[in-house]
Amino acid sequence: MATKINKKVFFKIHSWIGIKLSILFFIVCLSGTIATISHELDWLFNPDIRAEIQPDYASKNTMVQAVKTHYPTGKITFWRGAVAPYLCDVVYLQENGQRKYVFVNPYTGKVQGETTLTIQRYFRDLHYYLFIPFQVGHFTVLFFGFLLFISTVTALVFYKKWWRKLFDLKTGKGPVVLFRSLHRLVGIWSIPLTILFSITGMWYFLERANVASISDTANTKAPKIAAVDLDSTAFSHLSYTIDYDSAARVAQRAIPGLKVEDMFPPRKATSPLYLSGRSDVALVRKRANRVYLHPTTYAVIKVQKAEQIQTVTWLNEIADPLHFGYFGGLLTKIIWFFGGLGISFLVGTGIWISLKRKVRNARQAKAQRLGKWKYVNALVVLLMFGFMYSTLFERYAVQGRQFWLITITWVGLIYLAWFIYQKKINQAVKPPHPRSPQAPRV
């Protein structure tokens, strides 16, 4: 008897998480899902970012000169190497108080275009902190790492012998039975990635909250140097005058086998030139390999090799590749994408099943829809939209086309949710017509 009671409690916890926080849960899951293939979406919708693979790469200095020719008054703040062979390098450029993303072909060295907002940046921001500032958004998103873990564990407890039902799909017994069966089946197949996403999400929470000084231990601090001997005018142009080819060669000598991809020109006179990239160490992100150089002499100031980092730092450096699935290239991205779709499907079908279960009692269905937690969801979503549009206009200076694309997409998603969970459910709980001898069976 005690076992049955416990399983019932676990079911209630599982349902509470999936229903009461459903809107936020769905946004977090779906945004993370799309973020896994966001670079590929940029390739699909923006021809300027595409690169045709060639046998040889262009000189980094040639690429910088091309950027300087197009943006003589600009300043490079970050140079992100192409994340895939079919993509351009992206140079983050500050010009006239506005940040631009400049696409430079790594094979030809030519500037192919620019934008103020990429699909990758939008979905990373949305999934990262819901555009809500002051750390509130970050911790709101990261809190769902714990909720996802609890939801998964409770489901495994109350679903009897789930490991025997990997191919158990019930059909021909109506939509409720079908979706309930699909919900369970997708849930079982999603277990490995669900656990992975939740654990990495909880790690992000601990790191951001600096629990047990994890952040202090895991994150390498950039060293300071004596101020470079340049006047203000020369320093303002430093990002264009650095010999990036020489700097890359020095970094490769410091870390044999290093493929330099990302570069950070100094933003202050006491900041070094910082380069990072990939080595033979698997799983870790690029910043696990770091080389700090003097920005004018290219003397090595500090080196961090991925194979030598301590355990806490290593755990921190594998979190992103595991969470977003880019450690294995396009193949793992696609697997992670469908895994994320599965989790989003679980949230959506969980709501539908719960509401459908209550349609036989219109009063219960109404109570379900008018629960106080919908106001919590609505409040956070309204904050998200307010800060999102503020950020889009102020930081990213979105153009008309970008604004309408984002707005229409959100309006479409909101309408679809209303149609499925409000209109259809309302139709289901309507009393039978007075002349009808019997209400239609649901």
Strand order of the largest sheet: 1-2-3-4
**Strand composition percent:** 5-15%
**Overall number of strands:** 8
Gyration radius from CA atoms, angstroms: 26 Å
Number of alpha- plus pi-helical segments:
17
Fraction of residues in helices? 55-70%
Average pLDDT metric: 91
User: For the terminal residues, how far apart are their CA atoms?
Assistant: 32 Å
Q: Outline, from the CA principal axes?
A: elongated
Outline the low-pLDDT stretches. none
Largest sheet: 4 strands, antiparallel
| Class per helix and strand makeup | alpha+beta
Pattern of helices and strands: HHHHEEEEHHHHHHHHEEEEHHHHH
Concise structural overview:
Helices cover 56% and strands 10% of the residues. The chain is built from 17 helices and eight strands.
What does this structure look like?
The protein has helices at about 1-20, 20-35, 40-45, 60-70, 120-130, 135-160, 175-190, 190-210, 215-220, 230-235, 240, 245-255, 310-325, 330-355, 360-370, 375-395, 400-430, and strands spanning about 75-80, 90-95, 100-105, 110-115, 260-265, 275-280, 290-295, 300-305. The strands form two sheets. A four-stranded antiparallel sheet has the order 1-2-3-4. Strands 5-6-7-8 form a four-stranded antiparallel sheet, with helices on one face. The longest helix is centred in the C-terminal third of the chain and has 30 residues, at about 400-430. It contains 17 helices and eight strands. A hairpin with an 8-residue loop joins strand 1 (about 75-80) and strand 2 (about 90-95). The chain has about 450 residues and is an alpha+beta fold. Helix 14 (about 330-355) packs parallel to helix 17 (about 400-430).
